[in-house]
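Known limitations

Files may contain more than one protein. Parsers should not assume a single record per file. Below, a two-record file is shown to illustrate correct handling: read the sequence, read the token line, then continue until end of file.
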Amino acid sequence: MAKKKILIVDDEPDVVKWLTILFENNGYDTASAFDGSEGFAKACSDCPDLITLDISMEGESGAKMYKKLLENETTAEIPVIMLTGASPKLDEFLARMRGSKRPAAFMEKPVTDSQLLDKVTELIG
């Protein structure tokens, strides 16, 4: 059986490294991107089973990437876990999301390994 693939999109290299190690040590394949533009391109080409997405990033934001994911037939059904370290950014994002499909989960950084893995397992096994 093929491993499930998780696309990690975050502009903080340390966060990408932590999530990569966490997911790979728990049986998942990973790919990574450092802004929304790169993340969207990888989501289209790699067809991941799940995406972890930072809302606030340099370059293209996670909010903009999420909107593009929803508008694209290939990526619209991929579960997305939004990760953010900034509550005001999350509030702004939620306000803009009214009427749109909400992400599968929102988690505020710092999130524990077990919290994140429990959510990933719930969403994709």
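...continuing to the second record:
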Amino acid sequence: MNGKLAVIAIGGNSLIKDKQHQSVEDQYQAAHETAGHIARMVKDGWNVAIAHGNGPQVGFILRRSELASHELHEVPLDVCGADSQGAIGYALQQSLQNHFLDMGIDRAVATIVTQTEVSADDPAFKNPTKPIGSFMDEEEAMKRRERDGWDVVEDAGRGWRRVVASPIPTRIVEEPSVRALIAAGQIVITVGGGGIPVVADEKGHLHGIAAVIDKDFASSLLATKLGADTFIISTAVEKVAINFGKPDQQWLDKVTLAEAKAYLEEGKHFAKGSMAPKIQAIINFLEAGGTHAIVTDPPNIPRALAGETGTHFVR
């Protein structure tokens, strides 16, 4: 394999620009745009493994399943994850292939339906907090709890929702396949939505479970295992800021591992549901031996790799 390797994590929300652009075609167009930025870095000589979020897409699949439940069987959460990996992977894969054709790049692209193993003893299973699916009234929530064993919570007066655990990823099951494809020069789309969560039984057999794995944590693990030269988290902002939205807001260009840990520990700079997991994922990568990570938005990925923008994290 020639050239440096980058693992790029793009958000599932980046495929949906706003509430007026949520259709499959809208998502395809957004994927095509993001793929164009990645294609340019491939043209510059980078090898790439692409991870992506799937939160909104899994939400749509669950909603369709719920609406059709009077006539068809419902779709389990792990299967929703697999379905979304295929659909999003298809959009990114085809978009990259078309960009490569236009740019004269001779590279193959492959999507891998990826399982991510978690520990059955992960503390997250004792305190499920990740809301999924539609809102329900209390009667329906209690019925699902009794009949299906769901964990349900009341959500700020808006109704009841199912909640599931968000355990820490321990192994990317298809890592050997990802590694082999990258070594063969292919661009790989993998760990979609953090991967399909699975646990191993006493014989080592894998079983899908109802959980949600943070895609940045799974991407960080993948980057570590592959020995990536750069771990990129593509999000909605060009750079990371401390004191975001306040008079003393400060955009960050370069952050050391020690500084990143200090900012995170202060607990006031990064929102728990958005930027904080991204910073923790980068910390995990650097602590495990990684040397360089970047946070930026999709259009600025090539410029960030050239050192012109983005927030760069180093040991």
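Parsers that stop after the first record will miss the second one. For reference, the second record is described as follows. The longest strand covers residues 130-136.
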